Amino acid sequence: MAWECAASGDGLNDVTNQPILLPASPSKAEGAIAPPPSPVVARLLARARREWEAHQFEAAKQSLASALALAPDDPRAVRMLGMVARSQGDYAKAVEYFQKVLGVWPEDPFLRIELGLSLASLDEVEAATSHFRCACELAPDSASAWFNLGETLWRQARGKEAVAALQRTLELEPAHVEARLSLARAQAGLGHFEKAVAEWREVVRRDPVNADAWYGLSLNADRFDAVDTAQLQHAFARRDLPARAHYLLSFALVKALEDQGDFAKAFEVLQEANAAQRANARTAWDAAGERGLVDAILAVFADVIPPPTHSHPGPCLEREGTEAGIGKQAIFVTGMPRSGTTLVEQILASHSDVEGANEISNMPSIIDEGSRRRGAAFPAWVNDASSGDWRRLGNEYLARTARWRAHKPRFVDKHLSNWHFAGAILAMLPAARVIIVRRDPVETCLACYRHCFTDAAGFATDLDDLADYCNGFMRLTRFWLDKYPDRVFVLDYESLVANPEPVIRDVLDFCGLSFEPACLAPHETSRAVLTPSAMQVRQPIKPNAARAGRYGNKLERLRQRLHDAV
Fold first, then answer.
1. Whole-angstrom Cα distance, residue 99 to residue 115?
2. What is the pLDDT of residue 19?
3. Is residue 453 part of a domain?
4. How far is CA 566 from its chain centroid?
5. Alpha helix (H) ranges present in 13-74?
6. What is the spatial distance between Cα 111 and Cα 133, in angstroms, rounded to a whole number?
């Protein structure tokens, strides 16, 4: 579940937004392997290309079908079918077409890029990376190849390599705005904030209404001054910008208004931005469905879940000797968005035995796949799952996350939806540890309300929905702690930042980790942090100034809703 807005998350250039055009004519290598098409086929291919460029995808498929009827397996037509499939979001079919053509044109950098983009859209980022690397070798002056390589490397938290690839992109094409924005995000994620801010400032200098740059600055600049505020107000007043750009500018302006002490106006902008985002969401937030999900989880997991068996242990178990030892490698950190989960991950990742994996989605993916196989939504199928089923799911999870144990024996999975799945996680992986971070509810809800999320976090656009979502989180957190007191640790964020050492010692002890002084100075740990909290975790641990009080009675209804649910 990718909750962060595209400005602060990761993601590749989408061909449906900015298509990479097909070469005007086949290369010499192509011509040598695939003879020139007949005049009729050439006209059909040209027509299909025009239709594709006009986003007339069904018409393009018809033209290509006609071409293939005359010239079966023509690689030009098959490659174009891959382009059409990717433009329509059918990435698996696109991969199928591109791989078929790859046997004919293995040294076509354009084909490598398209195949890499399709694989990345299927979350097969390692395979995508290999094709982008190949494209860079075949076409070392291709800014597109270097840009997409940098993006996939960043998705894998390979920060230094990503920065190098993105810098190469800008050497080749200094006006490549997306590369400059991605470079800024990567620099921030590595803790190089001065460099990151300089890149965002350069984008704003070139384009004063660039919403992505302003939003990046709002998350990473210490303060916006009066000049910044005036520029943001001017940009925000424009009504000719895309909706997404207006959202991003809204949240950046809120930061600027807060820095100027105008919390009343900041709240007005927040209300307008969230209302607009809610109205334009592709999928409406299902508040009743969320309450029903929490109720169903509470009911299903009230029963005893059979532990997994592993009478035939495989390599994924990594020689854990008993059923109770399955999953000891994994530490799950979860909680509400903006509650301090990134800081907790950074603390654990400062330990010499622990790798921080950032917000990987392997567990939600495994749960979703289980639901599709059984034809029933989670948790309806939980009572039908046998101990063997849980073993299989646990092994699958360990296999998919093996790369995070390549250098260290333990790793942190910090996904914000995993608090729903704590019972399933512990059924699959009995020796895993689950840390649920709990921050002051009012502060948490306000932090969510003033942050730009994607549609998946639709609850964050309405304070009433935020209160309901937070209440569900609190109910389920209490349940998990009562049911699994030795495997679930509820960490109070305010206690952590007020008095770090005893809390950190308790967390390490809970995870079965020895105490290491580096865990008390997580801001000094060098690693790629992929979330918008990168700047906060690069600072020494200290009590955060409460923000909610500055908004006065504007949050009174939220406070009451949260209080009544306790």
1. 7
2. 34
3. yes
4. 32
5. 28-33, 39-53, 57-70
6. 12
**276 domain-assigned:** no
Q: Are 458 and 513 in contact (CB under 8 A)?
A: no
pLDDT score for 157: 86
**Whole-angstrom Cα distance, residue 217 to residue 210?**
11
The number of CA neighbours under 13 Å toward the Cβ of 465 is 18
**Range 464-473 burial, b when 16+ CB lie within 10 A, else e:** ebbbbbbbbb
CB atoms within 10 A of CB 498: 13
Q: Is 316 helix (H, G, I), strand (E, B) or coil?
A: helix
Give the phi and the psi of residue 71 in degrees, each rounded to 5: -135, 80
Instruction: Give me 357's structure tokens.
Output: 């994996």
Token duo for residue 234: 């001017």
pTM: 0.82
pLDDT at site 566: 66
Q: Are 338 and 447 in contact (CB under 8 A)?
A: yes
With H, G, I as helix, E, B as strand and everything else as coil, classify residue 3. coil
Task: List the structure tokens of 33.
Answer: 């392997």
DSSP string over 103-169: TT-TT-HHHHHHHHHHHHHTT-HHHHHHHHHHHHHH-TT-HHHHHHHHHHHHHTT-HHHHHHHHHHH
Contact 115, 37 (CB under 8 A): no
Pairing relationship of beta strands 433-438 and 488-492 according to DSSP bridges:
parallel
**Domain presence at residue 306:** yes
Q: What pLDDT digit, counting tens, does each position of 436-455 carry?
A: 999 999 999 999 999 888 76
Half-sphere exposure of 433 (CA within 13 A, CB side): 22
Predicted local distance difference test score (pLDDT) of residue 310 = 52
Counts for the chain of helices (H) and strands (E), in that order? 26, 5
- Residue that has been written with the tokens 């046997």 in this structure: 103
For tokens 């801010």, what's the residue?
Answer: 197
Per-residue exposure over 192-220, b if at least 16 CB sit within 10 Å of its own CB, e if not: bbebbbebbbbbbeeeebbbbbbbbbbbb
How many residues in total does the chain contain?
566
How many Å apart are CA 127 and CA 123, to the nearest integer? Answer: 9
Q: Cα dihedral angle (324, 328, 331, 332), rounded to 10 degrees?
A: -40
Low-confidence ranges of the chain (pLDDT < 50): 1-32, 311-322
Contact (Cβ atoms closer than 8 angstroms) between residue 294 and residue 476: yes
Please give the tally of structural domains in the chain: 1
For residue 14, what pLDDT is reported?
Answer: 31
CA distance 534 to 285: 28
Query: DSSP 3-state assignment of 431?
Result: coil
Enter the tokens of residue 90.
Answer: 């059918």
Strands ordered across the beta sheet of 488-492: 354-356, 410-413, 330-335, 433-438, 488-492
Please report where in the chains the tokens 């306000």 appear, as a residue. Answer: 446
Q: Are 522 and 537 in contact (CB under 8 A)?
A: yes
CATH number at residue 362: 3.40.50.300
Question: Is 17 a member of any domain?
Answer: no
Range of the domain at 486: 287-565
* 264, burial (CB in 10 Å: exposed 0-12, middle 13-18, buried 19+): exposed
Q: For residue 379, say if its preceding peptide bond is cis, omega within 30 degrees of 0.
A: yes
